[in-house]
């Protein structure tokens, strides 16, 4: 069995302590770096559609790429190897009849839903079957070597935005609010079905821990990501009106949830998000063109003051300022160092600054 240099007992205890408010010694801090003496293959992303479909949906290829990456990665602090189950953000748009996925840099969709009356779950759809079958394939392979992330089928409103087209979906909220709200409930039911099936598939391999793969979060139970990326086009009032059902239902459906927030563009929605009891953490993402997280310290403090955990990706140079200004018991930082030595030095810095 491969040895990726991870103390799983420590990883489980530390990540559990983060969610349970019992962190000691340092904030939760995941640092990765290139492993000395190992080189990672740089596999080019296919340029043809058939190659891109295989890249994303052939579990043998996905597993081989991840295992190669794990072998060449040094996992420091609270970092661990995780396989990201990625069939496109809001991938559950592809679970409905008539959906038309496009395999490009990610998986996107051509607008295909002519009427909300036509919205119907298709259990035989390519992407739905792949989502569940691949989760099972990953669990058969992992055998405790790595953690399997939950599928990135998140955001009921985002799924409808794909199916209707973003501009039309925004207009629907004005012209057909009842139809939109009914459709969101249909998507929610499919989301519950999918997440339950995926969780059942990976729970045993993950030793009962849920994971959001691309964020490297690990919680002692059913754990998922919530999001509404299309909310960057919504007012705070419309966000509350249309998203309240989804966020309340999803956050109560699982043991631990986090909300993926697109930084400055979604700050206006924070008052509502912080009031949802079932949302345990806010993950702040700096989208293209925004300043680094260190420029938003007052907002980040507001999140923690509300009792929410804060999950941040950052550059190594930003670590000291974040540690100095934020509540480290409610903080999860992730970064990538250039060497094993730099990674260890960053972990030691976090331990020295813990208060």
Keywords:
12 helices; 2 domains; TIM Barrel; 16% strand; alpha/beta; globular; single chain; two-stranded parallel sheet; 355 residues; Transcription Regulator spoIIAA
Structure, explained:
With 355 residues, the protein is of the alpha/beta class. It has 2 domains: 1-33 and 216-220 and 255-355, Transcription Regulator spoIIAA, CATH 3.30.750; 36-71 and 81-207, TIM Barrel (Alpha-Beta Barrel), CATH 3.20.20.210. Helices cover 42% and strands 16% of the residues. It is built from 12 helices and 13 strands. It has helices at 8-19, 49-57, 59-71, 126-142, 156-164, 166-175, 177-202, 236-253, 270-274, 297-305, 319-325, 340-353; strands at residues 28-34, 73-77, 82-83, 100-103, 107-110, 147-148, 210-212, 217-219, 223-227, 256-261, 281-284, 309-313, 331-336. The two termini are 39 Å apart. The mean pLDDT is 96.
